């Protein structure tokens, strides 16, 4: 049954692809591969490794036991070696050698060796009851240093078990950054001990809007959930062992409704609000003119930085509705005192204020491209003019709007850029327009389109190209309340973004990519992450 299902999935993914023979089926595809005649019989594993690679050795032991029933023995001489080698130039690079003497995985860091293990596990096959591995020499390193997956827990809390499962799959795909969207209008999902109402009130909403933004239909079910600081520490530690950095996102100054519902004095009006049950951009924004609000946000960031060792802290900074600032006498007075001429400039002042605070703590601020001050609200009808202030020079900018002129301008200014153009990288967009239960107005993102994305747009100088440090794919939480819905949108699409982040663009090939999905499709079916229904197979039979 599984083979039959896999064959159907291949037809769905590949369409009318002509069958070809690929030398190796690996995702993401390595950047230099030499295949030699013959296979190494791998019926037992005597593993040699230094103490510095114990984490990687333990990982290998677990995967060989779970996937092939092999028990690894730690010996001084054996048929498999994990080695640290200074000559490998890239910190995430590795060399994997399989020949008559056995298997050797080398890296200049434990992270490089770990990625070699992810390639190695995909090479293992069974032939006539014998486990074997082809003779190869693979020299590999990533195209980009930032390869992220973002989970929006703010709108749809998922929980620690699901996060760990996502981290497991990210590791196999060689993704190295888990971008964790923890606060939103519709929910605050991180325990802050100094402000307990953030989770006592802000983590709960009475109901959830269904179908689409204009819908008047709600599920009528209370929705809540948040991560304790103990749980967050456990997740961060779990990710660290998988060589994944967890980057928290704490939205400011917009997307603040849940926090303001908990502490109304944070808002720019006297109105007391509840945590919204509807989606879409809300009017609520932090009153950044009030020193109490700025102290609150710094207190929150202090606790966040205690939990997350990541050098980068994401502040969101997108989709800030500025009407409340414009209508507030307190905010207008503050702007006059500071010589700030517009709400857009106020947002830039605040953004740089937070950037300076993070820098004083040894951290770097990251935000969506709105933080540059260029064409704030450009996605809406009421376009805000450019802000006059210059963004802090060490900020990292995550581009989501797809405006190449703005991206080029930011690169020219010297900002590091992560490209997350929504028309290619948003996993929550319907992929085929026929998935049951989803009513998206946006253009669908089929697998081939997702795979075709190049984070470096045409027309950039060589120096500007160097400013683009990677790609991020995003799983936003609107309309995705259930874990099964999330799986339907993520699998297998994020594999395309993983390969874009790792494999040199000149070596990408969609036909080869599709043929190489056997290992992952089998794994994801076994774990019930996908089936013929949740990626639309039935409609294509």
Automatic annotation (TrEMBL):
Give one GO term, molecular function aspect. beta-N-acetylhexosaminidase activity
Query: Which Gene Ontology cellular component terms are annotated?
Result: membrane
The Beta-hexosaminidase bacterial type N-terminal domain extends over: 25-141
Give the similarity note.
Belongs to the glycosyl hydrolase 20 family.
The main enzyme category here is hydrolase
Q: Name one Pfam family in it.
A: Glyco_hydro_20
Q: Which residues form the Glycoside hydrolase family 20 catalytic domain?
A: 144-504
Is this entry keyworded Transmembrane helix? no
Q: Does the keyword ATP-binding apply?
A: no
Catalytic site positions? 319
What stretch or stretches form a coiled coil here? none
UniProt GO BP: carbohydrate metabolic process; glycosaminoglycan metabolic process
Top-level taxon in the UniProt lineage = Bacteria
Q: What is this protein called?
A: beta-N-acetylhexosaminidase
- Which InterPro entries does the entry mention? Beta_hexosaminidase_sua/sub, GH, Glyco_hydro_20_cat, Hex-like_dom2, HEX_bac_N
Q: Which reaction does it catalyse?
A: Hydrolysis of terminal non-reducing N-acetyl-D-hexosamine residues in N-acetyl-beta-D-hexosaminides
Q: Which organism is it from?
A: Phocaeicola vulgatus str. 3975 RP4
CDD domains on file: GH20_chitobiase-like
Task: Show the Gene3D superfamilies listed in the entry.
Answer: Chitobiase/beta-hexosaminidase domain 2-like, Glycosidases
- Keyword vocabulary terms for this entry: Glycosidase, Hydrolase
What EC number(s) does the entry state?
3.2.1.52
């Amino acid at each position: 049954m599984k083979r039959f299902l896999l064959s159907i999935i291949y037809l769905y993914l590949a369409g009318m692809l002509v069958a070809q023979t690929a030398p190796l089926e690996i995702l993401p595809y390595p950047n230099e591969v030499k295949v030699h005649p013959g296979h190494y019989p791998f019926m037992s594993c005597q593993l040699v490794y230094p103490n510095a690679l114990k984490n990687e050795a333990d990982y290998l032991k677990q995967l060989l036991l779970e996937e092939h029933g092999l028990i690894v023995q730690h010996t001084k001489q054996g048929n498999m070696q994990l080695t640290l080698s200074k000559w490998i130039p890239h910190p995430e690079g590795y060399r994997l050698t399989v020949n008559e003497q056995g298997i050797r995985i080398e890296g200049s860091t434990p992270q490089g060796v770990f990625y070699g293990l992810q390639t190695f596990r995909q090479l293992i096959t069974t032939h006539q009851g014998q486990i074997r591995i082809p003779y190869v020499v693979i020299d590999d390193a990533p195209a980009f240093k930032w390869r992220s997956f973002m989970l929006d827990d703010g709108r749809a809390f998922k929980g620690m078990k699901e996060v760990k499962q996502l981290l497991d799959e990210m590791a196999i795909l060689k993704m190295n950054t888990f971008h964790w969207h923890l606060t939103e209008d519709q929910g605050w999902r991180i325990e802050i001990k100094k402000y307990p109402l953030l989770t006592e009130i802000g983590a709960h909403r009475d109901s959830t809007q269904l179908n689409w933004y204009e819908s008047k239909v709600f599920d009528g079910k209370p929705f809540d959930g948040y991560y304790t600081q103990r749980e967050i520490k456990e997740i961060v530690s779990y990710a660290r062992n998988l060589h994944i950095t967890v980057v928290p996102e704490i939205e400011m100054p917009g997307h603040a409704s849940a926090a303001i519902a908990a502490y109304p004095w944070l808002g720019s009006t006297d109105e007391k609000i509840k945590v919204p049950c509807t989606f879409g951009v809300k009017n609520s924004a932090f009153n950044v003119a009030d020193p109490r609000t700025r102290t609150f946000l710094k207190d929150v960031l202090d606790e966040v930085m205690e939990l997350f060792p990541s050098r980068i802290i994401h502040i969101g900074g997108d989709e800030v509705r500025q009407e409340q600032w414009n209508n507030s006498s307190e905010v207008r007075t503050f702007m006059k005192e500071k010589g700030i001429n517009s709400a857009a400039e106020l947002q830039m002042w605040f953004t740089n204020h937070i950037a300076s605070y993070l820098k004083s703590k040894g951290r770097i601020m990251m935000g969506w491209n709105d933080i540059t001050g260029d064409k704030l609200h450009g996605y809406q009808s009421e376009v805000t003019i450019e802000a006059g202030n210059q963004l802090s020079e060490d900020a990292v900018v995550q581009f989501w709007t797809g405006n190449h002129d703005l991206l080029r301008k930011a690169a020219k200014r010297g900002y590091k850029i992560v490209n997350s153009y929504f028309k290619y990288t948003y996993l929550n967009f319907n992929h085929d327009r026929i998935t049951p239960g989803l009513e998206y107005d946006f253009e669908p993102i089929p697998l081939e389109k997702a795979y075709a994305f190049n984070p470096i747009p045409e027309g950039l100088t060589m120096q500007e190209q160097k400013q683009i440090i990677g790609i991020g794919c995003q799983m936003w939480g609107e309309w995705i309340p259930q874990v099964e819905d999330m799986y339907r949108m993520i699998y297998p699409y994020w594999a395309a973004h993983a390969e874009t982040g790792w494999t040199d663009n000149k070596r990408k090939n969609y036909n080869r990519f599709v043929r190489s999905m056997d290992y992952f499709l089998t794994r994801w079916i076994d774990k019930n992450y996908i089936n013929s229904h949740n990626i639309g197979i039935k409609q294509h039979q």
